[in-house]
# Entry
Amino acid sequence: MRLSKAWTVASKDFMTYRNKKSILYSTFYFVGLVSIGVPFILRYVASKPNSAAALPTLMNAFSFLYVIGAALLPLGIASYSLVGEKVQKSLEPLLATPTTDEEILAGKSIAAFFPAIGANLIAAVIFTVLVDLFTYKTLNSLYFPNWNMAIILFLLAPLACILSVGYNVLISSRANDVRTAQQLGALIILPLGAVYLLTELRVLDLNTNTLLIVAASLAAVDVVVFFLAKATFQREEILTKWK
Amino acid sequence: MSMIEVGNLTKKFGEITAVDGLTFSVAEGEVFGLLGPNGAGKTTTIRMLCCLISKTSGEAEISGYRIGNGADSLAIRRLIGLVPDNVGLYEELSAYDNLDYYGKLYEVANQERKDKIEYFLRMMDLWEKKDQPVSDFSKGMKQKVAICRALIHDPRLLFFDEPTVNLDPESSKVVREFVLKLKQEGKTILINTHNLDEAQRICDRIGILNTRLLAVNTPEELEKTVWGSKTVIQLEEVNDRILAAARELKPKDLNVEENRIILVLTDPEKENPDFVQAVVSAGGRVQYVTELNPGLEETYLKVIQETK
# Structure
C-alpha cells in the first residue's frame, strides 16, 4: 500500500469539507456543547456546599464523553465521505484508477479520523482548562491533567474513532443516503453510552484499571470491525452490491 | 496489433448470466461499438475489461496484460480511461479540482498535470469556468469534464459507456466530435451505446450484444450480412410481362412492392445492367435503380429480434 495514494484520497475529502462546511457542523456542535456547556454544569455543582467529594466522580464520568465524542464525530464525516461518493456515483471512476482498494479505504479512514480526533482534542483542552478554572477553589488543586484523561484522549478516543470509521464502512455498503448512514452509525455510541450511564449511576468506577479494560475490549472489537470493513470494501462488492 | 483480445469471456451473477462467451478483438486505433438493449451486458463487459469486476470464465487481454491477474490489473488501469454512464464527478469541487485529483491518482507529474488540465478545459470551452463548482454545470458540461478526467493521463485505450445518454443534441454533437478527434489522434476506443446513428458515425466496427455477441462487422458489412444485397428498380408501372422478363434471369429472390421490384442478387454490380435491360425490353419505364439500404437501426432490430 502506497501511503501517498491514501493521502491523495484523504486530501480530496479535506478539500470537500472546506467547500461544504455543513459536513463539519456536528464537530462544532460537539466542541461547543461538551467542552463549554459541561464545565458550566460542574461550575454550578462546585458552587454548592460540600460538593468536593462528589466532583471527581462527576468529572471522571464527563471525561468519558470524549470517548463517546471520538466515536460520534467521525460519523458525519465518514458517512459523507463514503455514502457521498455512492450518491454522487463517483466510486466507479475512482475505482478505475490505478489505486488499490486498501489505499482508497485508508484514505477514507484518514479523512474521517484526523478531523474527528483533532476536534476531540481541542474540545478536551478547552474542557480541562475550564473545569480546572471552575473547580480549583472547591478542590484546592488542579484536577486535570491526570492519567485517566490521558488514557481517554490518547488511547480510548483513537480506538473509539477507529471503531466508528470501520463501522461506517460497513454501514455505507447498505445505506443509500448520508442521513440514513448517520442514523445507523449513531448506534455505535450505545455501548459507550452504557459505560457512561453506569458511571453516572455509580455502578462503575472509571479508574485507570476500568479504562484499560474498556480500551482492551475496544481494541478487540476494532480488529474484528477492521477485517469486516476490509472484506466489505472490495471493488466488485462496491460496484455490484452497494446499492 | 490488437489492443483488446477477448476470448469466450463469461460473467455470471449467481444464476444469472450477464455476459456469455464473448469473443472479439479491437485493433490499436480502432473505434469499436457495442450495441445492445438494456441488460445486454455492455456495462458488465466494460467493467470486466477495466478490471473493476472479475470474470467468471474465459480470457481477455488489454495490450498484452491479462484481466483477472492481480499483478496486471494496476497496469491495465494505467493504460485505460473510463467515461462511465454516470459522470460521477465531485459536485462540490471545481472542474479544475476534479481533474487535479484524478491527475494525482494517475500519478501525472505536477507541471504536466497543470498543462493538461488547462489544455483540456480550454479545448472543451470550460477554462473560464474552471473554478466554479461542478454542481453549477449543465449535464453537457459535466460530461465534458468527465471526458477530460478520462484523458488526464493520456490513456491509449478509452472506454465510453453511453457517452451521450441524457444529453441534448448540441452537447451530444460536441461529445461525438470529440470522440472523432480522439480517433484521429489514434486512440483505441470501445464505446457502449444505444444510439445507432452515433454508432454508425463514429465506429469502425460494431458488435451487437445481447448477453451473447450476435454479430460483429463494419456497419455497412453488417447490413449486407443481415439483409443480403438488394437492388430496387422503381418503375412507372409493374406488369406481368415485366415480371416474367425479370424472373427469366433467375434472381435469388424477387419481390414486388407497389411499383418497385426488389431483387436479391448474387453479384449485383454484374447482374444489375442485365435486369435493367430486361425490364426496359419488356416495356418497363425505369424511374430509378438503387441499392436497398435498410440502415443500421433495422439491421440491429432484426438481429435482436431473431434471438428472441
Observations:
- The interface with chain B takes residues 5, 8-9, 12, 15-16, 19-20, 88-100, 235-236, 239-240 of chain A (CB under 8 Å).
- The CA atoms of residues 61 and 196 of chain A lie 6 Å apart.
- Residues 3-241 of chain A form one domain.
